[in-house]
Amino acid sequence: MEKLIFEMSSAGRKGYSLPKLDVPEADLKSLIPPGLSRNTEAGLPEVSEFDCVRHFTRLSQLNYSLDTTFYPLGSCTMKYNPKINEKLAGLEEFAALHPYQPDSSIQGTLEILYETEQALSKICGMDGFTLQPAAGAHGELTGMLIVRAYHTSKGNPRKKVIIPDSAHGTNPASAALCGYEVVTVRSDKAGRVDLEALKALVDEEVAVLMLTNPNTLGLFEKNVKEIAGLLHKAGALLYLDGANLNALLGITRPGDMGFDIVHVNLHKTFSTPHGGGGPGSGPVGVKGHLLDYLPVPRIRQKRNKLTLDYDPKKTIGRVRAFYGNIGIIIRAYCYIRSLGWAGLKDAALDAILSANYLKARLKAHYQPAVDDEPCMHECVFSGKDKKEYGVRTLDIAKRLLDYGFYAPTVYFPLIVEEAIMVEPTETESKETLDAFIEAMIKIAEEAKTDPALLREAPHTTPVRRLDEVLAARELNLRWKSSGA
Amino acid sequence: MYDLEKMRFTKTHEWFRVEGNIGYVGITDHAQKEITDVVFVELPNLGMEFSKGAEAAVVESVKAAFSIYAPVSGKIVKANSDVTKDPSLVNKSPYEEGWFYALEIKDKSEVDSLMTYKDYEEFIKTGAH
Amino acid sequence: MNYSPHTQKDKKEMLDAIGVPSVEDLLKAIPQEFRLQKLDLPEGISELELKALVSEKAAKNRSTRELTSFLGAGAYEHYIPEVVGTVISRGEFLTAYTPYQAEASQGTLQAIYEYQSLICELTGMDAANASMYDGASALAEAVLLAVRETGRRRVIFSSSLHPEYKQVIRTYLEGYKIELVEIAHRDGLFDEEGLKGQANEDAACVIMQNPNFFGFIENAEAIDAACHRCGALLIACVNPVSLGVLKSPGECNADIAVGEGQPLGIPLSYGGPYLGFFAVKEKHMRKMPGRIAGMTKDIEGKRGYVLTMQAREQHIRREKATSNICTNEGLMALAACVYLSLLGKEGIKEVARQNVLKSHYLKDGILKLSGYELMSGRPFFNEFIIRCGKDPDRIIGDLLKHGIIGGLPLGRFYPNMKNCMLICATETKTKEEIDRFVELLGKH
Questions:
Q1: Which of A341, A381, C18, C397 is geometrically suited to a Cys-Cys bond with A366, CB 3.0 to 4.6 A?
Q2: Which residue ranges make up each domain of chain A?
Q3: H/E stretch holding A261
Q4: B60 vs A contacts (CB less than 8 Å)
Q5: Which residue stretches of C63-154 are H helix?
């Protein structure tokens, strides 16, 4: 394995250069009193530039990534991240802008932001968008704060948020972060909201229902109209977790189905790279009755110039410093402009086609969670029938790494036992899908004939299966010099 | 030595052992197997009061977290610091060294409402958990 | 442009395998009334056209490379070594997902572990997480941690805390019954007497921004004493580059250290993506929000890394999670990791030293002019406030005509500071640029 950068350190090595100081030298002690200065120096490593390049290049080679490997991660929409978008977002005219520059010097960026807000509104059928949230969960928090502000303005912030048991964990966490009590509504075996159960839960203290559509089993929530009706009748709102928006692009719009608020993930649906865990961007769209509550600042058009409005009266306030993850938004803008409306629709249709193809070819070997209707952009299998061989879903996931594929999302949604959630996206070729299918079929065979091979997998990765229990019991979260 | 016959049990898989007006709380062998390797235990502070069924402690495995509820109402009088230092005790010795906390029993009649070991075994068999 | 590889032949074969004649047959679950005919968006364009379109937008911006900027106020122009961009644009880092399958993500995981270690070294704290969205949201999460840990409801800060950070805290805490106590600054610093009066047994935490929004260096000792006397947690919100010379949060006895990591090798990008860093003393480790990488061994005893303490997180604990955060700023943390590795022990001191010297040279220049005065003579790191004889907005407007962004007028944030301007000079400013700025200021 690669050494830690600290273990490569040798006193006196330098990896940086700075211009020679061109202003007069001064004794720092005369400018910053000793009581305010640092006493112990920061133990940063000392390496040469070349050492540093080698180290991080070698580390990069230990990763599976989308550029090298198929990433069938359900719910994550790991589609190709176009290179031109990286290049354009990195242009100095965008990257070297200070967030407090006068509006007159940033009109190009504001135009992109404004047009992206407009485009997302049209794609989702909403009346306005904010681009500020830094990620999906941040968008959810923003959404919940809008819900709270809306109900507060009506005299009662209300107490409860209803969330299906099939939802992403961020939904209940975001609702709780906003001070709401989380009420879980049961799903049927297709992951759809149980309407009768919902009816029994909706009352005047319910603020909002957070729904994912298509749901986490990859199925369209057919009853969305009834659900919206139920909520609206009780004065409550309907929120869309847009994690699965990729299936809807150009085909149908959340706004038309009765959703009042939606968050989208630019790092999923709109092809911005995931960066090994971020940055993302989680814009939030709302219908007209909620526009006033969007966070500040808002972009406004005034006499052909775009400006930032910092104090609309009813806003929920600020959810972060400055404007938003601009670099990510520019990439998404490039993606939307490249594809255009027809391209976006084709992307959704191809994603749906690919998911159904995978399901059709794998269902003889893995039990689909739902088999009596087509799926949307992703499909969920259960690995429970492999348990009789002493093999669990985790083992299947690890074995896939040996075949050169990243693993699907596993053990989610929680309502499917031993869940395996596969999302191929529209950018993987049929050849790649076929190779993945072949690997999955072989693994199903191996589960019967050589289960130990799976339980001990992976065999070919830079490290073998890692001990997570040891990591959690004997926490080692940072390097420490042996002297310390 | 522990005697399962003298202990009481809950549907949420806690065991309860009475010593005078104090009751010790842990989780059953069945529960520790379901949870798998315990990696962290969070115990209540001394003096905290809980009513029957309230969440009083948390155990974590690598992939899950479980609430430990107070089998009866009472005030915390002891907490097992050994188990916070070495959470594997919950797996190795669920009925002895792996106990979590002890509380001063507020209402003895609540103890009677808990299951006997025989009831608990039956409860697990029926799979109602 | 469309990035889908499916040919007509592919599609036909796939549909045959599924057993339906057309893709339309896969959409039956969507009620007809919700089906869309056409989206009101422009047609797609080629890469060539896209480049032209976006370049045209870019040309409407005037960047800090074209202009000479003296803006700071929470986002700082520092030199970013080329290696940082080279590393973070590698596809293996850029296009990887969150490292849930550890064995296939050792590069990302080891980099996070190194990042956590570097942040601990820099801040003098015991443990750090893998990143938060930005400095402001990291601070809000720190406040939530303090409220959870202490069970108390009063949050105390000075009016010298970054105004946008204050707004973010207010927004985040909307759903809680929390008392936010803002103490008016005293000559640019946290008012120690005011703090003593407010720090009582209800106080969950005291927030000390250092250097504060005005650029001044706080007297940490006094704040620490008042804060810990009443059992509140001390949250230090710091500029990481300043830690090359200033007392670290660890040395200040802080319980939680957070801050904006943008100065550590991340471009200004008009405000994002940035990096919130978050570090704590050992006793709060288990309550940290966000992802955390830990070292472990594989089944052959080889060293490796995994995401650990995951039971705190939303995907397991749901509504009881320590935070709702999922996606963070992983790639930005990698940038900071590379930046700090390149700078090393000496580099961070040298960059910090140049910031101090250049900004003080600028201050000395301005002090020689008539019509300007310092808001206060307190020690500062790389930015400070001047009071102008004229409306700062007019000065800024005039300077822009000369290619200079003069600083941040403070009237927008502090109505009683309408004639004040916050000015910053980092190591990126040359003596010549500073002299020219002073000269132009002198003409007002």
A1: A381
A2: 5-60, 84-338, 342-470
A3: strand A261-264
A4: 472
A5: 82-88, 91-94, 106-123, 135-150
- Domain C82-340 sits in CATH at 3.40.640.10
With CA atoms as reference, the chain C residue closest to B41 would be C286
> For the domain with range A84-338, which CATH number is right: 3.40.50.720, 3.40.640.10, 3.30.565.10, 3.40.80.10?
3.40.640.10
Compare all CA atoms of chain B with the CA of C312 and give the residue at the minimum distance. B65
Q: B40 and chain C: CB distance < 8 Å anywhere?
A: yes
The answer to whether C327 and A278 are in contact (CB under 8 A) is yes
Count Cα neighbours of C442 within 13 Å in the Cβ-side half-sphere.
Answer: 14
- In our burial notation (b when 16+ CB lie closer than 10 A, e otherwise), range C406-427 reads bbbbbbebbeebebbbbbbbbb
Q: What is the reported pLDDT for B127?
A: 66
Identify the CATH homologous superfamily for domain A342-470. Answer: Aspartate Aminotransferase, domain 1 (3.90.1150.10)
Residues of chain C with CATH 3.90.1150.10: 68-80+344-442
Residues in Cβ contact with C418 at an 8 Å cutoff, skipping those fewer than 6 apart: C391, C392, C409, C410, C411
Per-residue pLDDT for A483 more than 80?
A: no
* Cβ-based contacts of A472 with chain B (< 8 Å): 39-40, 60, 62
> Is A192 within 8 Å of chain C by CB?
no
pLDDT tens digits, B66-81: 999 999 999 999 999 9
pLDDT digits (tens, 9 = 90+) for A111-131: 999 999 999 999 999 999 999
Scanning B12-41 for CB atoms below 8 A from A yields 37, 39-40
Domains, chain B, in order of start with CATH, read 4-125 (2.40.50.100)
User: Concatenated DSSP letters for A124-156?
Assistant: HT-SEEE---SSHHHHHHHHHHHHHHHHHHTT-
pLDDT digits (tens, 9 = 90+) for A330-358: 999 999 999 999 999 999 999 999 999 99
Residues A184-194: what's their mean pLDDT? Answer: 91
* pLDDT tens track for A310-330: 988 899 999 999 999 999 999
Domains A84-338 and A342-470 share a fold: no
Chain C hits for B62, CB-CB cut-off 8 Å, are 310-311
Residues on chain A touching C291 (C-beta within 8 angstroms): 277
Distance of CA A381 to the CA centre of its chain: 22
Which chains form contacts with chain B, at 3 or more CB pairs under 8 Å?
A, C
* Residues of chain C found within 8 Å of residue A112, distances taken between Cβ atoms: 54, 57
**pLDDT recorded at residue A484:** 43
Question: 3-class SS at A9?
Answer: coil
pLDDT at A218: 95
Report the amino acid identity of residue C48: L
Banded model confidence at residue C333, pLDDT cuts 50, 70, 90? very high
C251-295 pLDDT, tens digit each: 999 999 999 999 999 999 999 999 999 999 999 999 999 999 999
- Asked if C320's CB is within 8 angstroms of B65's CB, the reply is yes
Output the six-digit token pair for A259. Answer: 């959703």
pLDDT of residue C319: 86
CA C116-C120-C125 angle, to 5 degrees, is 135
Chain A residues lying within 8 Å of B88, measured CB to CB: 473
What pLDDT sits at residue C275?
98
Amino acid A482: pLDDT: 66
Q: Where are the beta strands (DSSP E) in C302-394?
A: 303-307, 372-374, 383-388
pLDDT at C398: 94
End-to-end CA distance of chain A: 24
- DSSP of B12-24: TSEEEEEETTEEE
Residue C245 has its nearest CB partner, among A14, A32, A336, at: A32
Strand-pair category, B74-79 with C293-297: unpaired
How close A169 comes to chain B (CA, Å)?
Answer: 13
Q: What is the pLDDT of residue B63?
A: 82
